[in-house]
């Protein structure tokens, strides 16, 4: 076994094996709490006794943190870490809105949608700048561009980046979601519907999308990197205000994971393959070609400028009760950069 393999094979590191269903949002208890290795974290030193945080295959840094026990090491015996799996941004937002998680990862567009609809969340760190969405047709498809979708059926997960990718793509052809038949399915189910012939197209998400290309011969017939938003790590306002010490530990863990991942892209791909149950070659494509992890973790203008472009589309989509005014208000208040600023200055 190689040194990388030994690193990735920590005993008991993953509650999900390679065969675990990608679409399920499971709940996995954190590993045994460890003594703090960074000078704090003894019992009673933290502002809460249990942290619930998500991991997701669309968020490679979360997989590194979970696999290596970075948070458990930092928090020590004082805080139990419980991991929940997000099958998509919509599920992550459900965790946050319901109080089932303190911290969860989404696409920027999904975070903006949630806050515009009244969910009290803010972005505290940026985990990637991906090209994780595209329009996908089956092998041999006659679809060439968004205009060809008029009158066709499209699978998409509402409240996620692929859904808003579809909205923006249709807009380039002078179309709206009313001009297509939306099949609201979770990401993995969207791929199944496409491969089974139940829909004409799918607005896909990696790594499921990359697997569909390699395994089924599905075709990414429309790509536009500018229609993808950043990867947002979000927390509830209550957590930010009342548990800032633990929030800082979370963001510190993300920056530590980023440093490791950038130095170990092959290892990160291997880990993604194991958790997602996909071939390592497919995972390597996702990590090296479609996931830019080498970005500043500090949320700010780079992210809000991207969201400003989709705000009018989001406001007019009918998915926000307060329309464009609510979207604008959410956009001006969604960023909390203090934890990432401190973490990246160390």
From TrEMBL:
Major location (coarse): periplasm
Location of the SsuA/THI5-like domain: 77-264
InterPro entries: ABC_SsuA_sub-bd, SsuA/THI5
Subcellular location: Periplasm
Family annotation (Pfam families): NMT1 (PF09084)
PROSITE patterns: PROKAR_LIPOPROTEIN (PS51257)
Keywords: Signal, Transport
Source taxon at top rank: Bacteria
Signal sequence range: 1-25
PANTHER family: ABC TRANSPORTER SUBSTRATE-BINDING PROTEIN, ALIPHATIC SULFONATES-BINDING PROTEIN-RELATED
Database matches in NCBIfam families: SsuA_fam
Protein name as annotated: Aliphatic sulfonate ABC transporter substrate-binding protein
Native species: Brachybacterium halotolerans
Lineage: Bacteria, Bacillati, Actinomycetota, Actinomycetes, Micrococcales
